[in-house]
Structure formats: structure tokens, C-alpha cells
Amino acid sequence: MRIRVLGTAAGGGFPQWNCACSNCRGVREGNDALKPLLQSSLAVSDNETDWYLINAGPDVHRQIESFAKLHPGPGIRETPLAGVILTDAELDHTIGLLSLREGSCLTIYGTDTVRRCLQSAFPVFQMLKNYCSWEWQSLHPDFEQKLGPLGDGTITVQTIPVSKKPPLYAQSDKEGKSPEDLWEVGLVLHNERSGKCLAYFPTLLRITPAIEACLRKADILMVEGTFWSEDELVKIGATERDAGSMGHLPISGPAGIAEKLASYPAERKILIHINNSNPILRQGSSERYKLEQLGFEIACDGMEMEV
């Protein structure tokens, strides 16, 4: 199973057009220790021919152009993209579906809660119905989903509940709300050939026993790295909401990602979904050095691995 990191950034990408934090200013001023990043997304394949995107954000066209394996052809409107796997219904992870409309016939994987949202609060399927055809495959924690048109691939997707917090745009939509709604999930991608697996959790509010069990068994961890500290955005005056209220577990602190995952036995521990304000984006920063000393890697656009 081949994994390609198409993008690393949380939010609207890095730098954000309306952001004046030191990281974004540094990119605009040409600071060599900082690099602009594309929106967090992965490309996955078990045969180098059929590829699946994990989340499709606003940078999806640039991400496709950045990776030759995703280039269209040889036929008209022919594409190696076989489908998109959604971890949630956030705009940063779904708005790219609108850019994949040009005659595509893709399989979309997601929870039933996400499907309902994409038919109502953000009616992607209604908007695209005259442009392309889609097949929906539901992800559910009670069973594993095999990728492939006939379920004949060698990649199996295990779905792990993360949060019942809806996107901001859907929070005022009370229709169909239920305590059982599953808005955010993590994914464990199992390669049946190698027997190895990758745990992908771009967002984490807390590490539940089910999540911990997956993270301890996975060969490669690719997890939440959105904020360094709980009050990161509050301190720079960007918002009054802390990381927890936004649905993110920070990296630092006694209950943070680094402290909890440092002892886990995975071969590689990679932080992804990194906000433009996070100091770990700076080469040579003390925060980045601390993580590297603990055995963590900082994801970068274009990173590849075999699982």
C-alpha cells in the first residue's frame, strides 16, 4: 500500500490570505525556515493504478497536479481517481468534491451522518447531480470496508469514532440531529498483503480506549498536530476559543498528543493537519526540536511511505 501526503495544513491552507500571525508573515516575506502548505489530504493505492483521496479540500486541483500518478488520461475524462474517503463533513475536507465534478464517476466513502449533511446543510450531491455520477459507500464502526469497485482490493478501512461535533455551518441545522450522529472519524488502513496498517486521525478531541487500542497496534501513526498549545489562537488574538472548544487535542501539555503517544510502539509517529499558527512549522524551533527528540516527525507535502 502506497501513501502520498498531498497536503499537511489545517484550516484554509498556509499561509491564509487574511492571517497576520508570525508564520504566515514569514512565508510572505520569504523566510527559508517556513514553507507554504496545501490542505491536509492523503492519496492511497494498493496497485499504483487506482487511487483514493482521503478528504478533498480546496487545494485538490493543485494536489492532483503535484503528483503524476493522479494525472488524468490517457482517455478523455479518464482519471486514476477511484474514490474519496471522508473523515468528516468539514468544508476543508469536502469542498474539493465540487472540483472533481468533470464527468467523474467516483465512489465516496463516509459515515451516514456525513452523507445526510452533504444532502442538506451543504448539498454537494444536489449541486453535482447534473455534472457527474457518484456511488456512496457508508463507513460504520461496526464493520470494516474494503476498497475497490467489487470489494476486491487489498486495503481494508476500519472506522473509529472521534467526535459528534458537527461543522460550524451545520450547527444551526437542527433537522435530523441525533445523539448517535457520528460527525468525525479516524481511519485505520490495513494492507492485507503486508499485514501492516496506518492509523490516520487528522483531528482528535480526546483519546478514547478504542482510539488508544488502534494507535497502539498501528505500524505508522499519522495524527492530529493542529495546535501546539491549548490557548495558541487566544494568545495571538485570533479567537476567544481554545483548542478543546474547537475539537482539537493540542500537542503540548500533560494531556497532549506528545505526552500520550511518546511511548506507543509504532515504527513512525507523524503529525499532520497543522495550523498556520503552530510553531512546529518553523525549522529549528524549540517546539519542533522537542518533538524530534521524542521520535515524532512533522508531515510535509509530498511525503511518501509504503505500509
Contiguous helical run count: 9
Number of domains: 1
What would you call the shape?
A: globular
Structural class: alpha/beta
The mean pLDDT is 89
Order of helices and strands: EHEEHEHEHHEEEEEHEHHEHEE
Distance between the termini: 5 Å
Please report the total strand number as a whole number. 14
Strand content: 15-25%
- Helix coverage percent: 10-25%
| Biggest sheet record | 7 strands, mixed
CATH topology: Metallo-beta-lactamase, Chain A
CATH class bucket: Alpha Beta
Biggest sheet: strands side by side, in what order?
6-5-4-3-2-1-14
Low-confidence stretches: none
CATH superfamily: Ribonuclease Z/Hydroxyacylglutathione hydrolase-like
Describe this structure in words.
The chain has 307 residues and is of the alpha/beta class. It is built from 9 helices and 14 strands. The chain has a single domain, classed as Metallo-beta-lactamase, Chain A. The strands form 2 sheets. Strands 6-5-4-3-2-1-14 form a 7-stranded mixed beta sheet. The protein has a 7-stranded mixed beta sheet with strand order 7-8-9-10-11-12-13. The longest helix has 9 residues. The N and C termini lie close together (5 Å). The mean pLDDT is 89.
